[in-house]
Amino acid sequence: MRIIQATLEHLDLLTPLFVKYREFYGSLAYPDSSRAFLEKRLRRKESVIYLALADGNDKLMGFCQLYPSFSSLSLKRVWILNDIYVAEDARRQLVADNLMRTAKKMAKETNAVRMRVSTSSDNEIAQKTYESIGFKEDTEFKNYVLPISDEL
């Protein structure tokens, strides 16, 4: 398997798997909007996306997308591992591990203080994978979400 950083040239390869990722979490497919979303992130350099490709061909096995943030307390960069997904037929081949190791290397190279990741509280497979890479459950801070809707 090869891990590469996605560019605009990879949009047609990435979009179908990104759509499956969204569907996995209960979102509607919206392939055109999904492609436009990815294109904006890449064009504006607002995220870093890594692709896992099968050896010998360009079959996409999985991807991860990271967004930059910053820590005011440490005065350093933080990377948010926002999206990670492995194609069903590529699971149990250490695809997620390889993607996260590449992300971790990039975080070190950019002098980040940490990487953050969230997953569903019932997604035990993801939790074990994150822990195997070295992620620790945050016991210091409790996270909250404020939904922003169109309603006043």
Task: Describe the overall structure.
This protein starts with a strand and ends in a 19-residue tail after the last helix. The protein has one domain: Aminopeptidase (3-Layer(aba) Sandwich), CATH 3.40.630.30. A hairpin with a 6-residue loop joins strand 2 (48-53) and strand 3. The protein has four helices and five strands. The protein is 34% helix and 24% strand. It has a five-stranded mixed β-sheet with strand order 1-2-3-4-5, sandwiched between helices. It is an alpha+beta fold and 152 residues long. Helix 1 packs across helix 2 (31-43) and helix 3 (95-109) packs across helix 4.
Spatial extent as radius of gyration = 16 Å
CATH first level: Alpha Beta
Largest sheet: 5 strands, mixed
Order of helices and strands: EHHEEEHEH
Reported by name, the CATH topology is Aminopeptidase
Shape, per Cα inertia axes: globular
Q: Mean pLDDT, nearest integer?
A: 92
| CATH architecture level-2 label | 3-Layer(aba) Sandwich
Number of domains: 1
Secondary-structure content class? alpha+beta
The percentage of residues in β strands lies in: 15-25%
Strand order of the largest sheet: 1-2-3-4-5
